[in-house]
């Protein structure tokens, strides 16, 4: 704008107007030319459109022919591809058939691969129904598969049977910890398995002091065979042959397991069989059963579980029922024996085997729960638990029976020498044996009462001891000699006290119990001295004789007015009574050497001073007369020697000698 204004100013207005007019004319001319060009272009393009339309009309037949040719080519390609696929199926079938005809035994992997190939052929034709005319091939393939499945079934059965052999007992024993292996070839002579080892130790207590028990799993089926059996089982399952698979596996493995147990020594015994057995035979069988239970659960049943899990891996519908069926009969045979024992007639000697059986069932409980898991093994778990509780119940009832039996024992066999009665040693050994089972007993008490188990054990022990003492009091009354009555009670109570002091029972019964019963022993010893020696000591006293004040015995002195005849009579009576006592009481027995010496000393301390005093005062009256040795037969030393023969349990023959 500034430039235009400047130009106008410089040129003048007329000239400027002319210039603007020229420029406007030029612009108008240019616009007219542009319109002409545009119109021309539109006309050209319009002619192209009409020409293209004509061309398109002319080319349409050619396009139709080209499309038909292309479609034909596509159809030909599809037909060739279909033919190629069908030929491929023929080739696959031909190669697979060759492998199938050779059978699975030589090369199972190739055989199974061939079966998979045949299944793929069937699948191909099932998915391509449009391929007509191939029904013959499909039928042939299906027949091949059916034959292949039968051969697979036969191979599975043959392979499983070939490797399902019973496990020999020696192989099973080698899988046990060293402490549980039999000391001889017989399964019934294992070291600690039944709790009847030399140290009379409950296996549960004994094993706690050892290294942890290590069990080695037995090889029931070789490791290299298990994958083959698994593959075969899968093929049978996929082919819908689950029932045949189930039947073959159940029969084969159950038979091998049952034969393994029979070789081991497991028998099927009923309650009647158990009742008819002699105790020694039955006790041995119970010891074996404990061993068999341990081997069965820890080695055989656990091994069967692993084998079953591996073979039926991925076949969940068969795994658990197969294992349950394989083991059901074996478990039933084992547990039925335990049940027969638990239900058999109770007797005191059965208590410890019942405790052994209860202990092994407790020990195996968690493993039984793990091995026999799932709904198909419910009955086995429940039967096992039921047996454990029944054994506990029977053991507890046997406790009560034993206590009653001890108190009411009516054994007429008296111990003639006053020694420890067999009942006493039996009961004490019984009680000592009970304390070897402390942990088992405490578990047993908790089955019925959640109270203090130590207090319960102490109560049981105290009642048994009291029952024994009550029975001994009754047996002591069988003796006609009251001195022997006291000696008998002294011996037996002393044996009880000494045994308690040397056992774990002392901790439960307490020091007070021990001290009270030691005083009872002393009381019986004092009673023995009084009853046995009071009369003979009377021979060494003469009423009215002068006394020099020597103790409790009145001693006669010379010049006291005592006649020689009276002194002779006293010597004669003393000799007769002492000889009778010596002959009789030398046959009596005080089995404890300490107690025996103590009792002899107590007698000597009373008898010898009195005898010496009597000889000193009245001896001269006899010695100065005729035949003094007829009356003074013994010196104090002779008496002391003869006293040393008391309570030795000698026979009459020995005494005469």
Structure description:
By secondary structure, the chain is mostly helical. The chain contains 22 helices and no strands. Helix 1 (2-11) runs antiparallel to helix 2, helix 10 runs parallel beside helix 12 (351-371) and helix 16 packs antiparallel against helix 17 (482-501). The longest helix has 90 residues, at 13-102. The chain is elongated, with a radius of gyration of 56 Å. Mean pLDDT is 83; it is low at 187-210 and 546-559.
- Give the ordered list of helices and strands: HHHHHHHHHHHHHHHHHHHHHH
Helix segment tally:
22
Task: Note the beta-strand portion.
Answer: under 5%
Spans of at least 5 consecutive residues with low confidence = 187-210, 546-559
Distance separating the two termini: 174 Å
Tertiary shape: elongated
Q: How many individual β-strands?
A: 0
| Helix amount | over 70%
Rg, please?
56 Å
Overall pLDDT score? 83
Main beta-sheet strand count, sense and barrel state: none
Q: Give the helix/strand class.
A: mainly alpha
